Amino acid sequence: MKIAALVSGGKDSVFAVQKMIEDGHEIVCFVCLVPENKESYMFHSVNTDLVQLMADAADIPLISQSTSGIKEEELNEMKAALSDAVSIYGAKGVCSGAIESEYQRSRVQNICDSLNIASFSPLWKADPISLLTEMIDSGMEIRFAAVAADGLGEAWLGRPLNRQALADLIKLHQTKYLHIAGEGGEYETAVLDASFFKKKINPVKTNSRWYGNRGFYDILEAELIPKNEMKEMNKINE
Questions:
Q1: pLDDT at 41
Q2: Cα 11 to Cα 13: distance, rounded to the nearest angstrom
Q3: For residues 48 and 135, what is the distance between their CA atoms, to the nearest angstrom?
Q4: For residue 181, what are the CA distances in angstroms to 12, 98, 186?
């Protein structure tokens, strides 16, 4: 089926795309909603400008739509963007990276129903530890782009989400009750590589901002590098 993928730039939406491709679907476009209100109920707001690079890396067209970020009003803006995906790219369905948020999943479903297209949530109710392990093992390169929880200090900004980071998240879940997948807003991520990317995103200039109990990792400049060239660069740096 031809699928429009709701992509925020974070791990969940990108991995949802990967799962849909593995299931035999064709991703005809990315759809990114960029909220003006950073406290949006629906949409990720950290490093959304990277989504264009992700689309280029995957060789998939992008529909980018700014939204007010105002609760419920932003749903009309998402509907307009998904309507474009249907009319321009022939999308017959939409996928999202929802894991536990019924608020997000149900609203995407309602919009899809109104457009007479299918809605897919391939990560829905997945076990967080198993899900993050699968992401890591698939070769995704993920960085922590924002943190806002007890136990997640400044050192987490820009840190790779790898097996050691997952082990640390599990410990924080046990002691601080942090959600391992970040479903409570404890952290946000940025994806630099995935199995379906034809090129990898290489950060050139970054900046970390820390505000005492929360912080952000900004990728200010980045470039796309063919994966074979990146392997050669890594060998040189070893």
A1: 45
A2: 6
A3: 20
A4: 9, 11, 9
How far is residue 47's CA from residue 66's CA, in Å, rounded to a whole number? 14
Which percentage of the chain shows pLDDT scores above 70? 90
pLDDT, tens digit, 9 for 90 and up, residues 67-101: 876 777 788 999 999 999 999 999 999 999 999 99
Q: Which CATH number fits domain 128-237: 3.90.1490.10, 3.20.20.140, 3.20.20.70, 3.20.20.80?
A: 3.90.1490.10
Q: What is the pLDDT of residues 134-167, one digit of tens each?
A: 999 999 999 999 999 999 999 999 999 999 999 9
CATH superfamily of the domain spanning 2-120: HUPs (3.40.50.620)
Claim: this prediction has a pTM higher than 0.85: yes
Residues 67/51, Cβ–Cβ less than 8 Å? no
Q: What is the pLDDT of residues 14-54, one digit of tens each?
A: 999 999 999 999 999 999 998 775 554 444 546 778 999 99
